[in-house]
């Protein structure tokens, strides 16, 4: 009698095929999870994000140093401060003439405003850098402090009342104050719209055209130049107030210039 050879049962040791297609897909998926191309792509994306964040921090430091330089110039330039006061502050309160000593705070508000979120950033940056700028730490010294201590670190230090460093000889606040003359000249350039006198650095100073020439229908620029021996009555006046101007004006057009010889203030009731 011949012996019959029996086939091995399915699923036994001789069966090398997966039980079903799902098993094949799982097997293929486990191999792709270690695909080096995907890992390389993720590494490149992570490096790009880190590079962008580093560039953002560097740009922010550069801008804050530049704003500190602008504030330093405004501290020492009365004419520039009056012009800064008269710019458009949207819905936010404009600085007062007597707040020139807080120039850095107002420069930050203008640069990061006018939205509420921007004002919060301005407040944070002032808390971090204001005490340093106040003692003359500007330029490269200010940038180095931001790099070594970070803005958050500086903000925490100053909120705790830490001792501030002395300004270096190379980064002290430059003295740009002009020599005191017998006459003090104050200028304010403000864009005026017809029948709408805006608030300016000289507090609602407005001169209506009274010449017989053809009136200028669009906006015009009026430059006021005040020459007086004592400016205290201008800076210490109680606002709001009525202002009476006496001087000479050449005419009203797209641009005009008025030389003020006398300014009288009268407090409004």
Quick gist of this model?
Residues 1-34, 149-175, 193-218 are annotated as: Disordered. Residues 160-172 have a biased composition (Polar residues). The protein is of the alpha+beta class and 269 residues long.
Helical content, roughly?
A: 40-55%
Mean pLDDT, to the nearest integer, reads 71
Low-confidence stretches: 162-211
Number of domains: 2
The total of beta strands comes to: 4
- Spatially, the strands of the biggest sheet line up as 1-2-4-3
Overall outline: elongated
Number of helices: 8
The major β-sheet equals: 4 strands, mixed
Proportion of strand residues:
5-15%
Q: What does the radius of gyration come to?
A: 35 Å
Structural class: alpha+beta
H-E order: HHHHHHHEEHEE
- From the N-terminal CA to the C-terminal CA, the straight-line distance is 134 Å
Please provide a written account of the structure.
By secondary structure, the protein is α+β, with helices and mostly antiparallel strands. The protein folds into two domains: 51-171, no CATH class; 184-267, no CATH class. Helix content is 42%, strand content 15%. The protein is built from eight helices and four strands, in the order αααααααββαββ. The chain has helices spanning 21-32, 36-75, 78-85, 103-112, 116-134, 139-149, 151-159, 232-235; strands spanning 184-192, 220-228, 241-249, 255-267. The chain has a four-stranded mixed beta sheet with strand order 1-2-4-3. Strand 3 and strand 4 form a beta hairpin. The protein is elongated. The N and C termini lie far apart (134 Å). 17% of the residues are buried. The model is unreliable at 162-211 (pLDDT under 50).
């Amino acid at each position: 009698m011949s012996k019959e050879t029996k086939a091995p049962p399915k699923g036994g040791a001789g069966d090398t095929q997966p039980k079903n297609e799902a098993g094949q897909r799982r097997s293929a998926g486990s191999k792709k999870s270690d695909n080096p191309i995907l890992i390389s792509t993720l590494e490149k994306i992570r490096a790009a994000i880190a590079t962008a964040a580093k560039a953002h921090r560097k740009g922010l430091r550069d801008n804050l140093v530049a704003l500190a330089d602008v504030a330093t110039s405004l501290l020492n330039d009365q004419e520039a401060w009056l012009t800064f006061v008269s710019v458009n502050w949207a819905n936010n309160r404009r600085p007062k003439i007597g707040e020139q000593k807080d120039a850095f705070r107002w420069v930050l508000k203008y640069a990061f405003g006018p939205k509420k979120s921007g004002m919060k950033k301005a407040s944070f940056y002032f808390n971090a850098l204001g005490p340093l700028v106040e003692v003359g730490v500007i330029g490269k010294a200010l940038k180095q402090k931001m790099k070594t201590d970070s803005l958050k670190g500086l903000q925490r230090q100053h909120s705790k009342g830490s001792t501030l460093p002395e300004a270096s000889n190379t980064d002290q606040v430059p003295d740009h104050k002009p020599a005191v003359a017998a006459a003090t000249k104050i200028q304010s350039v403000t864009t005026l719209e017809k029948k709408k006198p805006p608030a300016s650095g000289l507090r609602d100073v407005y001169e209506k055209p009274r010449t017989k020439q053809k009136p200028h229908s669009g906006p015009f620029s009026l430059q006021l130049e005040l020459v007086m021996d004592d400016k205290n009555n201008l800076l210490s006046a109680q606002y709001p107030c009525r202002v009476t101007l006496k001087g000479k004006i050449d005419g009203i057009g797209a641009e005009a210039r008025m030389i003020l010889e006398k300014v009288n203030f009268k407090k409004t009731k």
